[in-house]
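> example.struct
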């Protein structure tokens, strides 16, 4: 099932399939290791939903909700 990272529930896992967006935001995500094929898990969500903390490539990364919405993933149903 395809989902964006901002719609994950805490503890949910998936594999990055694509990164949308353009320019600086997309380049920043790639620089942080958010690339197709990377396994990602949502660790925490702030009380108001923004930001979110994910585990990717062996480290924890905090993303704004808008950045997380640009990350397309494949989740096992």
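> example.seq
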């Amino acid at each position: 099932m395809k989902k964006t990272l901002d719609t994950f529930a805490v503890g949910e896992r998936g594999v990055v399939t694509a990164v949308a967006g353009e320019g600086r935001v997309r380049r920043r995500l790639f620089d942080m290791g958010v690339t197709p094929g990377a396994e990602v898990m949502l660790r925490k969500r702030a009380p108001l939903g923004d930001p979110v903390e994910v585990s990717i490539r062996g480290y924890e990364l905090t993303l704004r909700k808008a950045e997380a919405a640009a990350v397309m993933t494949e989740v096992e149903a």
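> remarks
Residues 51 and 64 are 5 Å apart (CA to CA).
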